[in-house]
Amino acid sequence: LDLSNCSLHDVSPELAEATTAIVLDLTENPLTTLPSGSFVGFTHLQLLAVPLALECPGGSDAWQEVTVDGSSWLCQGQRNPCNVSAELAWPCPENSMCASDGPGLIQCLCDSPFHGYKCLREGTFPVLLFGGILGTASISLSLLLWGTQRRKAKTP
Asked: For the EGF-like domain, which residue ranges apply (predicted)?
């Protein structure tokens, strides 16, 4: 994706639709900052070129090689932040696993059959129980209102 020399002053939210990009060139743009969430989901990105005024997203630890090429930084070979030594591993909760979510970003995905906040709930959502209670309450309230409001209805 070549966005070089496009007079970009900031990274557009529409960039989030290009998460499958492998190469991204943002050079020769008057960019001053890259918002922290600009590259969420860019797990396939292998080459990123940014102006010298910026730095590679995630820092130099998020890339295998960071070099200067003329007036830009070349960030090459995105590293998986989950594949580090045990002392530096990301603290995902129990019943979950670490997964890369872009340069220097991680997400914790729940192992099956766990779900919910911090992957503490096991099994599936009780759809029948929830639907039964909601349906019974709705029908009961409807009948109550129909019965109490019926006397106020005008007959022709």
From this structure: 108-119
CA gap 61, 63 in Å, rounded = 5
In a domain, 8, yes or no: no
3-state secondary structure of 49: strand
Is the dihedral angle over the CA atoms 67, 83, 106, 17 positive or is it negative? positive
Determine the 3-state secondary structure of 33 from DSSP: coil
Task: Give pTM, 2 decimals.
Answer: 0.69
pLDDT digits over 49-100, tens only? Answer: 999 989 999 888 889 999 998 889 999 999 988 876 555 556 888 999 999 9
**From the CB of residue 101, how many other CB atoms can be counted at a distance below 10 Å?**
19
By CB neighbour count within 10 A (0-12 exposed, 13-18 middle, 19+ buried), where does 83 fall?
exposed
Count of domains observed in the chain: 2
- Distance between CA atoms of residues 38 and 14, nearest Å: 10
Does 28 reside within a domain? yes
Rounded (to 5) percent helix, strand, coil in the chain: 25, 25, 50
68, part of any domain: yes
Domain that holds residue 70: 13-78
